[in-house]
Amino acid sequence: RELSREMSRDSRVTDKYAFAFDIDGVLIRGGRPIPEAIEAMKVLNGKNPYGIKIPYIFVTNGGGKTEQERCVQLSKQLELEVSPGQFICGHTPMREMVAQYKTVLVVGGEGEKCRHVAESYGFKDIVTPGDIIKDNPHTTPFRSLTEQELENSKLRNYGKVKIEAILVFADSRDWAGDQQIILDLLTSKGGYLGTRSENFDEGPPLFFAHNDIIWSAQHDHTRLGMGALRLSLEAMYHGITGKKLEATSFGKPQIGTFEFATRLLQQWRKENSGIDAPPETVYFVGDTPESDIRGSNLFNEHSANEWYSILVRTGVYDEGTTPKFTPKATCDNVLQAVLHAIEREK
Ligand code: G3P
Ligand code: MG
After folding, report:
1. 61 C-alpha vs ligand 2 centroid, how far in Å?
2. What is the three-class DSSP state of 82?
3. Among 22, 34, 258, which residue has the most ligand 1 atoms within 8 Å of its CB, making it the best to mutate?
């Protein structure tokens, strides 16, 4: 293919293809960049045999900070500027629920961070597990709030507050306490704490930012993720009520996340490079077959352009096994994945 055709109107940016990157296990592991990630980013920004620049976005199931904060952190880690206009995290789609639910329980993350994320999305009335424990310390018999938590938590009579939805934004830091409170609400009469529904069919809806059972952190082996909390809650809810727990998870592999990513990428290419058409191919680089490869393969079947999945060996995927969902290519690391795509586009 002719290189000249690949150039956009006003720069060295190719309009033919683009990348979408998973973060944990591809670019970052346990808060540190994967060594090849920094070089891979340089290749995308012109350090390649053709001198072209290739647009890219980030699609992570992770979260726990505002998109803005997360981009500042990622910019430092990857030694380049990352804009919120190229970033989607697990809880990003939850901002669309602001109009639907006024009072929400926000679960997970460090300290008050997820309360701030929910505020940044525009939620009007945010309750955290800490607020509930402050109001009634008997809620969690084996967990007391620290002084800092007591100071941050908002005191109210929660028996009088109707909690309309439960939103798990980020990984729980206190599985026992958080699950107790979620179960209290699920089995309540209409979201009022302290009440019990007779048939367990009046509780608020439950949403998770994503459904990864395991993820790749600093430990040699994968660690339990938000999907594991969901499995645990399902088992407990069934044990208590005899019923199946209904819940919704966002993030990858949901098609909606890939549709969102398509819109974001289109916007990003338009605003940054003046390219007003979708790329022919999006290379999706991920480490988790169940989320990244499954989602991009499925989306490829529905999408007008090609979504080409690349599995890397730096995260969840264990080389000794056959991935449950087959990628278009498997590479040792993100740098090899980027070079593979450039070679394929040559
Ligand atoms: O908690 C985050 C983890 O489950 C996955 O993050 O970047 O691999 O989608 P990521
Ligand atoms: Mg990952």
Report:
1. 8
2. coil
3. 22
Domains 3-90+252-345 and 93-249 share a fold: yes
Atom of ligand 1 nearest to the CA of 315: 8
Which tokens in the block code for residue 57?
């976005």
- Residues whose beta carbons lie less than 5 angstroms from ion ligand 2: 22, 24-25, 287-288
Rounded CA gap, 206 and 187, in Å? 12
What is the b/e burial string over 46-65, where b = at least 16 CB atoms within 10 angstroms of the residue's CB? eeeeeebbbbbbbbbbbbbb
Tell me what ipTM this predicted complex has: 0.98
Per-10-residue mean pLDDT, the chain, length 346: 45 93 97 96 95 97 97 97 97 96 98 97 98 96 95 91 98 98 98 96 97 95 97 98 97 96 96 93 98 98 96 93 95 98 96
3-90+252-345: CATH number: 3.40.50.1000
Q: Please tell me the CATH code under which domain 93-249 is placed.
A: 3.40.50.1000
Ligand 1 contacts CB of residue 62 (under 6 A): yes
Distance CA(5)–CA(115), nearest Å, equals 48
